[in-house]
Amino acid sequence: MCPQLAGAMRLGPRPATLGLLLLCAAAAGAGEAEELHYPQGEHRADYDREALLGGKEEVDEYVKLTPEEQHKRLKSIIKKIDLDSDGFLTESELSSWIQMSFKHYAMQEAKQQFVEYDKNSDGSVSWDEYNIQMYDRVIDFDENTALDDTEEESFRQLHLKDKKRFEKANQDSGPGLNLEEFIAFEHPEEVDYMTEFVIQEALEEHDKNGDGFVSLEEFLGDYRRDPTANEDPEWILVEKDRFLNDYDKDADGRLDPQELLSWVVPNNQGIAQEEALHLIDEVDLNSDRKLSEAEILENQDLFLTSEATDYGRQLQDEYFYHDEL
After folding, report:
1. Which CATH architecture has domain 195-265?
2. What does this protein do (predicted)?
């Protein structure tokens, strides 16, 4: 368990804040998933299906489809991915579709969470209801009083940030969040009116000298090289590479607000592009760097264990295979 999460759990059974989850996922989840997905460097297509079909119920439903029905629904999905209707799927079209799929399921999950959090079923989620769902009790920290325990103080800071994001999402200043506002709270990256708040929150945390930018030193946080070491540890080298090559687009040695946004907000674009390229590499039989319907149907099993169909899940979701999307 990542240390930030371990410390927070002392104060509640289910701590979940945007920053905490992103930090832990980046530090641990990605590496563990990679090892399971590519043991000894070999791709496990069955892992894709097992992990991401959505569970036993979805797998059972998938198995119930006849090959003919699978074929029919897959052809319908192919037609929708083909934005220019030229009969071929390009990297760009595949990537756009996968990103849309990610967003769709994130929104569906938020809608399901909304029902769980709305304890009194009045159509809104109050701050107290959010706390009860997350921590089994209402937590109320004094904004102006720091705690002596380092881990508890860390959790206090994260909880206060959650509260500020909750209040920002509450556009109508009502007693709670309606569904649209709850989605803005859970997925601020998907809602325009939350963008400035996300940037300001990140600057408050990382911009130590108050110049409106995040330098490499600020990006790395409290890290200082061990004076007895000849070089930085591998994880620091990785972080430096990400700063220089992924985030600092204008190569000026610091992150401006828009560059900062690409760091602190989940971005599925890179994942989608990787999967699109992987599919083209595996399915493109004539090396024209695009996929025809015939190539896809000939490699149907591979396509159904990819993110392009959310590992087959889209064949169960009428939203994707229905004639009107």
Report:
1. Orthogonal Bundle (1.10)
2. Not known. Binds calcium.
